[in-house]
Amino acid sequence: MDESGSEGAEWTQEHFLLLFARIKSSIQDPDRTLAYSQSLKNMDWKEVAFSPFSAEACQQKWTDVMHKLSKTRTLTELVNVAEDIVSNPAKNYKAHPEHPKRPPPPNAFFIKEHSTAYQMKHPNLSRQMVLKKLVRKYNKLPAEEKNKYLDKHKQASMEYKEAMQMFSKRYKPSQKTTETPEGVSPKPVLSGYHLFCQEQCSSTSTVRGDSFAQSAKRWQTMSDKQKEVYNQRHEELLSQYLDEMNQYSQKFSKVKQREFLKEYRIAKTMTDQKRKNKFPGEPEMPNRFGRTIFYKQQMLLLCKKVPNSRERLSTVNKLWKSLQPEEKQRYKMQASEEVVRYSMELQNWFETLPEEQQVIFWTKNPMKVKYLKCEEQLTYRPSDSEDELTQDSTDGELEEFCKGNARWHLETRVAIDCYCLNSAAKMDAYRNGL
């Protein structure tokens, strides 16, 4: 293969990856554990060469690549690193050449000051051992002597902050924006807390890291009502984004719709639906069953003793079955008290809503109707044995349980309709017909 044929050829990503693969396959077994320089001498570049590049061209290109890599590893490891850099350029992104460097820690100033003299005094020690010895020596220094290096670190930190401010003004960071379809709002941040930090950081001229830390401290001192404002705004932005993306996906076929929603991670989950149905300031529903409270407590207590979640759940299940009826009754009473407290909080909150919002709440949350103290409230209550239904329950027990739930759901739907129509006569007619 003559070299002239490779002079005009350009190296593409595919050529680089092929070169790395052929180098790896050409490394002999005895050379795989040798240092880089020794194994490189044993490399047969004629075996590595491939069209349209000669052996000399491949060797020269590998030399060019190696100028950018550290040579403290084996040849096999270095080839893997080179493959990763070429295949994932974004992952191996380099910082801006003018980006200020963070100041070293205080002990680094001490090491820099004494390393040369210590190395000359102990020539047989490696550089790594010299560093370890000096670190130990610094740690044993009295506080008065350490202050000298602490002051140097503080001075370097102040200079770094000033340099970062100058750098931020000169090179304004480009905002990371996800490519959303035309006519769709940008994807909002993760939560109300992130929305607050985003607004605070954009309104200050300090270093981004310091500004974020200040925003985090400010968020911790805010009241629940102040936080709720940002949480509600985040919910509105997220709901608007999801609605627009789902509406935009209607333009495609069903197959493309699934691909589109999967690409943008907009699958309609139960969590999304619950979040959409939850109103701002609405009380959180507690655990309604004693067994659920017991499971939640024990899963937390046993998390270190039994790390595997499945094994831990099995252990907790056995513990629940071994409890005496009196102990189970205590957890059921605790759940009942939580439900009563929740019912009172929900009723107080519900009365603060405008009539239009009350109708919307009834329509979207039929399962919560029974917790409101209203004239149309229904008499159904979940039995104490509901949380006892397990895989060991008989078909008759399950059938009876399902019948009760089905009738209650029907009555609940009737209550909502009558409430919206504000017709007591229709309520009586429906009840007589059930």
From TrEMBL:
GO terms for molecular function: DNA binding. It is found in: Nucleus. Residues 231-258 form a coiled coil. Keywords: Coiled coil, DNA-binding, Nucleus. Residues 100-168, 186-249 bind DNA. Its main location: nucleus. Residues 100-168, 186-249 form the HMG box domain. The keyword Coiled coil applies. InterPro entries: HMG_box_dom (IPR009071), HMG_box_dom_sf (IPR036910), UBF1 (IPR051762). Pfam families: HMG_box. This is HMG box domain-containing protein. It comes from Gasterosteus aculeatus aculeatus.
